[in-house]
Amino acid sequence: MKTIISWNVNGLRAVHRKGNIAEVFHMKPDILCLQETKALPEQLPDEL
Asked: Which InterPro entries match (predicted)?
């Protein structure tokens, strides 16, 4: 069975600073969809 997570983060950089993103990666979804990230790729850490 595939695991799909769809998350409207509305500020991915703030979520990453708070450490909430680690919980999502710990779930090891097969597909992860992030909406409303409001960040450019160069503004995010490499691990994202």
From this structure: AP_endonuclease_F1_BS (IPR020847), Endo/exonu/phosph_ase_sf (IPR036691), Endo/exonuclease/phosphatase (IPR005135)
Look at the block and give the residue holding tokens 């503004």: 43
- Side chain identity at 5, as an amino acid letter? I
φ, ψ of residue 20 to 5 degrees: the values are -70, -25
Torsions phi, psi for 14 (to 5 deg): -65, -40
Identify which has the larger pLDDT, 33 or 46.
Answer: 33
What DSSP string runs through 2-47? --EEEEE-S-HHHHHHHTHHHHHHHT--SEEEEE-----GGGS-TT
Q: Are 9 and 45 in contact (CB under 8 A)?
A: no
